[in-house]
Every structure is written in structure tokens, then in C-alpha cells.
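User: You have something folded?
Assistant:
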Amino acid sequence: MKEFMMLFRSEPNPNQNPSPEEMQKMVQTWQDWIGGIAAQDKFVATNALGYQGKTVQGNGVITDGPYAELKEIVGGYIVVKAENIDEAVKLSEGCPTLAMGGKVEVRDVMVFDM
């Protein structure tokens, strides 16, 4: 099996201020979706990404914010195991990001022997 990373992309919504109950429901939705992948023994790792960041360029220039010039943000990721990219894409079905109008980018993880 290969590893694939799913990147969760969405447009930032500064007006979104969910209640504690809505936050708990969102967390539960994510836990259920990830739990379904784990139940298939295809879960590797996951994390959400915060809003603080810096971008470092090869010329030494450092700017505030990750991808400040883009409309989309990468809010987090999950690494899964699958036989091929089509199976990894199938695992993305039901991702809570999709229900909120976001996108899931599925990429293969390259392994280097060192």
C-alpha cells in the first residue's frame, strides 16, 4: 500500500463564529469521518493547521501569513494508506470540508530511502 495525503482547502470566512454546540458537532463529524477510515486500517496521521504562519523564500525574504495572496487556505490534512490514488480519492468521500463548500486535494506521498 502507498500513502496519500489529503489537503483540506477552503475559503476563509472571518464572519463564521460557531457556537460551542456547533463546534462540538463539527468536531464529531470530523471524528466520525476519520474513524471510518481508521476502521478500515487505512489511517496514518492527521492534524489541523492554525492561522499563524510565515512564508520563507529562497532569496531570504520572509512574509507573514501562509499564502496571503490566495483566496483559499489549507486548513489541515490527513495521511491515509491505499492501493492507488483512485482508492484514496474514494476515502475522501464524506469529508466534512466538502459539505462546507471546500475541496480535498489528494496527493501521493513520495518515499525516499536514505
